[in-house]
Specification:
The protein is of the alpha+beta class and 231 residues long. The chain has one domain: Spore Coat Polysaccharide Biosynthesis Protein SpsA, Chain A. The protein contains six helices and 15 strands. The strands form four sheets. The chain has a seven-stranded mixed beta sheet, sandwiched between helices. A hairpin with a 5-residue loop joins strand 11 and strand 12. The radius of gyration is 17 Å and the shape is globular. The termini are far apart.
Length: 231
């Protein structure tokens, strides 16, 4: 059985319901919904429910954010790709909801995370990992699934790391390492097999719809900003 977690702040995009109803035609599923303003705690509560349900036959854990909609049978596709590449964790590529074409998928190099653009992803395999990037991969938690039968699932948790740094010019900057990149860094240190994929077509809903298809966006590569934080 696959647990599908639906973390949210109390509202869902209207397209979420059909996305969940057509998630799979092959696998039994159970839905876990948590409504919390504290994002990492919301994820952890979903994870804890799944951990406590393993005696009922839970073998995978999936997550679907409330501002994303995916094509029918997205979970079947993720499962097929997971088995094909032998992934512990596989995540669908999700574009950030602006016109730059940046995504929240990237790579970890010298302790810094660099984001991939949709233009760069268009030149990568449909499903790619650390071997394709030459560095550990950082993935998004918008739409993903993982093997829940391994011992590591009892040792991990989600957290957001915030800090304020003093720059060389004396100014102070607030920085954050998001829960998904923190999780990715932990997976890399543990040697887990983590992959990202565009095999699942999805939409990230914001001021307009941002699709994970094609080479689009104003940027060819990440120019860096306050979201990039050393880990």
């Amino acid at each position: 059985m696959i647990v599908i977690a639906l973390p949210n702040y109390g509202s869902f995009h209207p397209s979420l319901l059909p996305s969940i109803l057509t998630a799979t035609r092959k696998h039994p599923t159970a839905i876990v919904q948590e409504r919390r303003s504290l994002l990492a705690n919301c994820f952890n509560r979903c994870w804890a429910v799944a951990l406590n349900s393993r005696g009922k036959g839970v073998t995978e854990f999936a997550m679907h954010h409330s501002d994303i909609s995916a094509e029918p049978y997205w979970l079947d596709t993720l499962m097929e790709e997971k088995e094909r590449v032998g992934a512990d964790v596989i995540s669908a590529v999700v574009p950030i909801n602006d016109d730059r074409g940046l995504t929240s998928t990237g790579w970890i190099e010298d302790g810094v995370i660099r984001r991939l653009t949709m233009r760069q992803i268009a030149s990568l395999p449909t499903t790619f990992g650390a071997a394709d990037l030459g560095h550990p991969i950082a993935v998004n938690t918008g739409l993903w699934v993982c093997d829940f039968t391994k011992e590591w699932v009892e040792r991990v948790h989600f957290q957001i790391n915030d800090s304020i740094t003093k720059e060389p010019d004396g100014t102070f900057v607030a920085r954050v390492l998001s829960e998904d990149w923190n999780f990715s860094a932990w997976c890399a240190k543990e040697g887990l097999k983590v992959f990202a994929t565009t095999a699942v077509k999805l939409t990230h809903h914001g001021q307009r719809e941002y699709r994970n298809e094609g080479a689009w966006g104003t940027l060819e590569q990440d120019q860096g900003d306050e979201l990039n934080l050393s880990i």
